[in-house]
Amino acid sequence: MRHQTLPTSSRRTSRGSAAGVTVTGVQIDNDGIELHVAEDGDPAAPPLLMLHGITSFGGTWDWIVPELAERFRVSRLDFRGHGASARVPGGYGSAQYLSDAIAVCEQVIGEPCAVIGHSLGGITALIAVQQRPDLFRAAVVEDPPMFVVPRAGEPVAEGHVLLDAFTVMRRSLPSLQAFGMAAEAVAGFLAQVPTSSGETMGETIEADGLLSIAGSLLAVDPTVLDPVVGRALDPLLDAEEGIATPTLVVTADPAVPGAICDPDAARELAAKSSAMEVVTIAGAGHLIHDEIASRARFRALTVEFLSRMGVPT
């Protein structure tokens, strides 16, 4: 079945905007929580689910959706607390994000799909293909936080650049959102922010990526960061089980501050998996798909892998 029709009470079409986030698509109900799913492409085309990182939203994939929508029916989820989905303070755990992704697979897509995920979306995709392989045909995951909890005893190592940034964001987001700035103004501010390399974000991040980051920061529930800065996200990925679904793990360069996926950990899981590949992009930071220097490489790896895996057929 290409599409599962839901009762009117649990699925509805929506259009509009929220805090710089364009809202088009459908709203679905996941155990009383309204989730937004943007949809593009031919409804009869092979399905592709796209999952964003923490504090982001489905718009982070705007740059590649027109190309993918020529071959796929593309569904982009806004996780709970992000973008146009409902806020659920206290309900931002690994199991809850996994539940959101599975809800889209079951309620919107209705057949095995490919999945692409970044960071939070990447680890959620890995957990999903491990626990529910019946729902997926292939996966591409971008710098996911693999095994950082069981190996280090906390989600991110103490003093990690990304953890420091999230801590600052958690303190500043309520004031930023209350100030009422437009996404374009926030993007302009972000463009001037220095990075660990000494360059500004405007010099390293694509302009559309900055605008997407700005819009997502204005829409996100700041409390989604509480489990991250509090080192309380539960590890659900089983390091011993392996993954049967064809999967490509694209990691940032571990020498770059902010990179979060340990390539060695990814390769250890790949050794236990029947069809997993690991590629590290030299010089890439955590925001691989938004980086001026890395986006084209990420795009090429993603398109080539999906094609080689027979997705779409």
What would your notes on this structure say?
By secondary structure, the protein is of the alpha/beta class. The chain is built from eleven helices and nine strands. It has a single domain, classed as Rossmann fold. The radius of gyration is 18 Å and the shape is globular.
Q: Helices and strands in order, then pairings?
A:
Blueprint: E1 11-18, E2 21-30, E3 33-40, E4 47-51, H1 65-68, E5 73-78, H2 94-109, E6 113-118, H3 120-131, E7 136-142, H4 148-152, H5 161-179, H6 183-191, H7 201-204, H8 207-219, H9 226-229, E8 247-251, H10 263-271, E9 276-280, H11 295-308
Parallel strand pairs: 4-5, 4-6, 6-7, 7-8, 8-9
Antiparallel strand pairs: 1-2, 2-3, 3-5
Helix pairs in contact: 2-3, 6-8
The major sheet is characterized as: 9 strands, mixed
CATH topology: Rossmann fold
| Mean pLDDT rating | 89
Helix content: 25-40%
Task: Compose a concise summary of this entry.
By secondary structure, this protein is of the alpha/beta class. 35% of the residues lie in helices and 19% in strands.
Keywords:
single chain; 313 residues; alpha/beta; Rossmann fold; 9-stranded mixed β-sheet; 11 helices; 9 strands; 35% helix; 19% strand; globular
